Automatic annotation (TrEMBL):
Compartment list: Membrane
GO CC field: plasma membrane
Keyword Cell cycle carried by entry: yes
Protein name: Cell division protein ftsQ
């Protein structure tokens, strides 16, 4: 028994001290907007390095430094693979700042300057970063499913109680305050199917034409 234990200890020490199990490949999942090569590079893990000595926490911290990445986990997949799981920010909105486009996630965080994806809604009006008006607007936008957001051109923010959507088919839909958003989102989808250019869904149980 003692000999077996000694052999196991020696084997474990050898794996730790010498590059017996080396990194030969990466497996990156969850990345839609970030290239796998950029994730690998940001991890700081080099091919040929000792897999047993991988600092998974430090590698995950490096990946999470990529602007598009909200969080990341890194793990060993023996005998030779580094597994990296990425959770990206969900870009629900964007604001134009001079000649740049700043993306905003579903938590109201402005996280990167990049081209807006089709499901992101442009915010106009009172768009001061971190303001109550911005937070209210993001909550309203995030209540809409991504395919519905693609039908929206802009969300005009007058104040936190006055949010107005403009759609690609030239509908104007007054949302009002950021409250009862789940039911307003249902009303929003219904209104898209109706004739008429101007609608008020601030009370989703009593939708009216304006």
């Amino acid at each position: 028994m003692g000999v077996v234990l000694l052999v196991a200890v020696i084997a474990a020490a050898a794996v730790w001290l010498f590059p017996i199990l080396t990194v030969k490949s990466f497996e990156v999942v969850g990345n839609d907007h970030v290239a796998a090569e950029d994730v690998e590079q940001a991890s700081g893990v080099a091919k040929g390095s000792n897999l047993a000595r991988l600092d998974a926490r430090e590698a995950a911290r490096g990946v999470a430094s990529i602007p598009w990445v909200e969080s990341a986990t890194v793990s060993r997949a023996f005998p030779s693979t580094v597994h990296i799981e990425v959770t990206e920010h969900e870009a629900v909105a964007f604001v134009r700042n001079g000649g740049t486009t700043v993306l905003v996630d579903n938590h109201g965080k402005e996280f990167v300057e990049d081209e807006a994806p089709p499901e992101a809604v442009e915010l106009t009006g009172s768009t001061d970063s971190g303001s109550p008006e911005m937070q209210a607007a993001v909550e309203a936008v995030a209540a809409l499913p991504a395919p519905i957001r693609e039908k929206v051109t802009t969300l005009e923010i007058k104040d936190r109680y006055s949010l107005t959507f403009h759609t690609e088919d030239e509908k104007t839909i007054f949302w009002g305050a950021s409250e009862d958003n789940k039911n307003k989102a249902i009303a929003f989808e219904d209104v898209l199917k109706l004739e008429g250019e101007s609608w008020n869904i601030s009370n989703p149980s009593l939708v009216t034409r304006r």
